[in-house]
Amino acid sequence: MIPYTQYRLRVLAENSAGQGPWSEWVSFRTQPAAPPAPTDLTEEQSFPHAIEISFLPPSPPHGVINEYRIRHTPSGQMNYKEVRVLANRLQCSDISKRDRLCYRVVDLEPEQEYEIQASAHTEGGAWSDWSEPLGAQTHEQ
């Protein structure tokens, strides 16, 4: 069964005497689970000390996405800095990007290449895997 999906079912008993009547319909929803990773990380704008990114939320979400983790590291290094952001804080100001989520990664060094990734979390579920890394560079000061 698919996580966090609404189902309806009914049963029919059968034995050597034949079939019984169908039961009433019963509706239920499966439990949430870890979503797939966010996709299509894109650099929207670069600054000397920040990079603005956008990405697509997980699909299917496997629950209600309530939080994201966004991490970055200078390219070629593994010393990630990570932030957690509530899902409702990631709306893009550009109306043409209403299907995407936006975030500004800050406190970066000028003229530095960074790898940026995102991960999603469902209420009552778990964290997704990290997205594919996005390579992006800050501008000179």
Automatic annotation (TrEMBL):
**Residue ranges annotated for the Fibronectin type-III domain, each copy included:** 1-33, 37-141
- Locate the transmembrane regions by residue number: none
List the GO terms this entry assigns under cellular component, sorted alphabetically.
external side of plasma membrane; receptor complex
Keyword Repeat among UniProt keywords? yes
InterPro entries (UniProt xref): FN3_dom (IPR003961), FN3_sf (IPR036116), Ig-like_fold (IPR013783), Type-I_Cytokine_Rcpt (IPR050379)
Molecular function terms in GO for this entry? cytokine binding; cytokine receptor activity
Q: Does the keyword Repeat apply?
A: yes
Q: Which UniProt keywords apply?
A: Disulfide bond, Glycoprotein, Receptor, Repeat, Signal
Q: Where is this region: Disordered?
A: 120-141
Q: In the record, which residues are listed under signal peptide? A: none
Q: Which PANTHER family does the record match to this protein?
A: CYTOKINE RECEPTOR, FIBRONECTIN TYPE-III DOMAIN-CONTAINING PROTEIN
Q: What is this protein called?
A: Fibronectin type-III domain-containing protein
